Amino acid sequence: MIKALFERLRQGHRTMKFPAEGLQLPHRALGLPEVKSSRLEKAAAACPYGAIGSAGLDLGRCVFCGACAKADPAAVEFSRDYRLCASSRAGLEVNSGAHARAEALGAELRSLFGRSFKLRQVSAGGCNACEADCNVLGTVGWDMGRFGIQFVASPRHADGLLVTGPVTKNMELALRKTWDAMPSPKVAIACGACAIDGGPYAGHPECHGLPADIPVSLYIPGCPPHPLTILDGLLRLLGRIE
Ligand code: SF4
User: Fold this and answer.
1) How far is the CA of 181 from the centre of ligand 1 (A)?
2) H runs (alpha helix) in the chain
3) Would you say the CB of residue 218 lies under 6 angstroms from ligand 1?
4) Which CATH number fits domain 107-237: 3.40.50.12280, 3.50.50.60, 3.30.70.2190, 1.10.10.10?
5) Which of 86, 76, 87 is nearest to 30 (CA)?
6) Where are the domains of the chain?
7) Pocket flag, ligand 1, residue 46 (CB < 6 Å)
8) Whose CA is nearest to atom 2 of ligand 1?
9) Rounded to two decimals, what is the model's pTM?
10) Is the shortest distance between the CB of 65 and ligand 1 below 6 Å?
11) For a substitution probing ligand 1, which of 59, 64, 78 has the most ligand atoms within 8 Å of its CB?
C-alpha cells in the first residue's frame, strides 16, 4: 500500500492542461488547412474523396490524408491547429477567408448543459477509430469529466447524441430509437467524416447518413478527429471556451 502511495506521488498530476496556450496537434497529425490559392485544380485532382472544389476545401469530407498538400504545396498547407469544429455544414468549408469556429448553444441550453452534459454515443457503422478517440477523453490524461461531460449508458440519461460512422442501413433503426428515447431538449453531434458526409463510404447504397430530421448542432471533422478537436468542439458548444 505504501509503495502504491509513493508511486502515486512520484507520478504526480497527469491530466493535461486544456485549453492551454500554444497547444498543438502532434507533429505527424494534420490540422486546420490553409487554402493559399484560388487555383485548386491540381490539389482537387489529387483528392481521393472529392473534398476540394471551386469553393475551397470541405473539412466535412476531408480524411486528412495530405495528398492535396503533397500534390500542390502552393495551394494547400496543413497546420497543427486542432480547432476544426463548426456549427453548420457550410461552416466546414475552408477557403482563403477565416475559418468559422463552432458556436455556443443558445443561453437556455447553455444554462441546462453548460456544467453537466451527458452524451449517448452511437456507432452507426463506424470503424472504431472515432469511437476510440472519444473513449480516450475519459482517461486520466484528458479527464473530460472535469468539464462535466460524460458518456452515459442510457439515452434516457443523455442530453446529447454523438454519432460516429456513416449510418449504415442496419444501424438506422437503432439510431432513430436512441434519438427518440432521449428527453428534450437534446442536441445531436456528428463526429468524424463518416457521420458528417459518409467519409469513404459516401454514396454507398448501404450508408444513409444522419436522418435530415435529426438536427446537428456540432460537426467534428477528422478521420478520426483528434481528441483535442473533439474536446475543443464540445467545450465551444457549451460556451466554455470562445
Ligand atoms: S487531405 Fe483532405 S482534401 Fe486533401 S487530398 Fe486528403 S481528403 Fe482530400
Assistant:
1) 37
2) 2-11, 41-46, 67-71, 107-113, 129-135, 169-181, 193-197, 227-237
3) no
4) 3.40.50.12280
5) 76
6) 107-237
7) yes
8) 62
9) 0.94
10) yes
11) 64
Write out the three cell numbers for 210.
444522419
User: Which residues touch 186 (CB under 8 Å, ≥6 apart)?
Assistant: 158, 159, 160, 161, 179
Peptide bond into 183 cis (omega under 30): no
The finding on whether 67 has its CB within 6 A of some atom of ligand 1 is yes
pLDDT per residue rounded down to tens, the chain (242 residues): 889 888 888 888 889 888 887 899 999 999 999 999 889 999 999 999 999 998 899 999 999 999 999 999 999 999 999 999 999 999 999 987 778 899 999 999 999 999 999 999 999 999 999 999 999 999 999 999 999 999 999 999 999 999 999 999 999 999 999 999 999 999 999 999 999 999 999 999 999 889 999 999 999 999 999 999 999 999 999 999 98
Name the residue with the closest Cα to ligand 1, atom 8. 47
**Ligand 1 atom closest to Cα of 61?**
7
